[in-house]
């Protein structure tokens, strides 16, 4: 589990704690209103015990959401897994709050707590636990999806590269290190930032097809230029220019006005 995933799972758990806490508080007020004879302590024990156990067993829907995001199981695998998980979730919830309520009633009221017959009470609690489990799983799932999207945006994209077949040797260079490309008969000569001049058997048009998406423009029938590496434009008269790429100068013909506009833009 990545740090980003742990962060978003913690946020989802805190959100669940806040929701369950708010629901418990409202339930206490509702019970007091509907059955004032019960007093305040009894509904407080009931709702607090249920909430405390729920805070702990939130790990089950959290783990299931993590499993779903990581493995993306088919529905016929996910459905029975969730059925088992929600059953375990409900058994732990009911047994946990029964123990806490017995302790609370004995310590605070000096009386014995009676849950009632399991045949009727457990199905009632199970229906509520199914809703609680489903909502918690969705919250955890959304949180993990969010963490994945954020992680993807934080990971820098690797630099674009271009393969130059120089004879029998393949040279892979970052596109940013290619200053310009010159036509040399049946070959294309690459002018690299480190001073190398590898050749590949290819037409200039074919090379441009691969480099145009990276900002290369054709400035002359024999030259391509990396727009990102241009350091200046120098008029040569009659509408022609010299494109400066550091110490390298490349011609820009007046027959390529689109290139001039692109380099000025």
Helix content: 55-70%
Task: Quote the average pLDDT.
Answer: 93
> Widest sheet: strand order?
5-4-3-7-6
Shape by Cα distribution: rod-shaped
Low-confidence stretches: none
What structural class do the secondary elements suggest?
A: alpha+beta
Number of strands: 10
Number of domains: 2
Strand and helix order? HHHHHEEEEEHEEEEEH
Q: Can you summarize the main beta sheet?
A: 5 strands, antiparallel
Q: Bin the strand percentage.
A: 15-25%
Question: N-to-C terminal Cα separation, in Å?
Answer: 46 Å
Number of helices: 7
Radius of gyration: 35 Å
Q: What does this protein structure show overall?
A:
The chain is α+β, with helices and mostly antiparallel strands. It folds into two domains: 3-154, no CATH class; 161-264, LytTr DNA-binding domain (OB fold (Dihydrolipoamide Acetyltransferase, E2P)), CATH 2.40.50. Helix content is 57%, strand content 20%. The chain contains seven helices and ten strands. The chain has helices at residues 3-34, 41-57, 59-71, 75-109, 118-154, 204-211, 257-264; strands at 161-166, 169-174, 178-184, 187-192, 199-201, 216-220, 223-226, 232-237, 240-245, 248-252. The strands form three sheets. Strands 5-4-3-7-6 form a five-stranded antiparallel β-sheet. The chain has a three-stranded antiparallel β-sheet with strand order 8-9-10, with helices on one face. A hairpin with a 2-residue loop joins strand 9 and strand 10 (248-252). Helix 4 (75-109) crosses helix 5. The protein starts with a helix and ends with a helix. The model has no long low-confidence stretch (mean pLDDT 93).
């Amino acid at each position: 589990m990545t740090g980003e995933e742990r962060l978003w799972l913690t946020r989802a758990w805190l959100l669940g704690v806040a929701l369950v806490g708010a629901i418990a508080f409202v339930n206490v007020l509702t019970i007091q209103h509907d059955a004032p004879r019960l007093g305040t302590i009894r509904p407080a024990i009931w709702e607090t015990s249920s909430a405390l156990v729920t805070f702990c067993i939130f790990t089950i829907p959290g783990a299931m959401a993590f499993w779903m995001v990581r493995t993306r199981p088919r529905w016929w695998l996910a459905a029975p897994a969730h059925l088992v998980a929600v059953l375990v979730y409900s058994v732990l919830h009911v047994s946990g709050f029964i123990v806490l309520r017995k302790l609370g009633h004995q310590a605070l009221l000096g009386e014995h707590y009676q849950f009632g017959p399991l045949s009727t009470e457990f199905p009632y609690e199970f229906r509520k636990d199914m809703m609680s489990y489903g909502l918690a799983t969705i919250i955890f799932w959304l949180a993990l999806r969010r963490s994945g999207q954020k992680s993807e945006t934080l990971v820098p994209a690797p630099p674009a590269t271009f393969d130059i077949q120089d004879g029998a040797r393949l040279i892979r260079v970052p596109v940013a290190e290619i200053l310009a490309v010159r036509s040399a008969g049946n070959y294309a000569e690459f002018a690299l930032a480190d001073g190398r001049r590898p050749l590949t058997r290819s037409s200039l048009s074919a090379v441009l097809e691969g480099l145009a998406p990276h900002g290369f423009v054709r400035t002359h029938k024999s030259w391509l230029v990396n727009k990102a590496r241009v350091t200046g434009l120098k008029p040569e008269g009659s509408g022609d220019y010299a494109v400066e790429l550091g110490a390298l100068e490349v011609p820009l013909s007046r027959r390529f006005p689109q290139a001039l506009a692109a380099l000025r833009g």
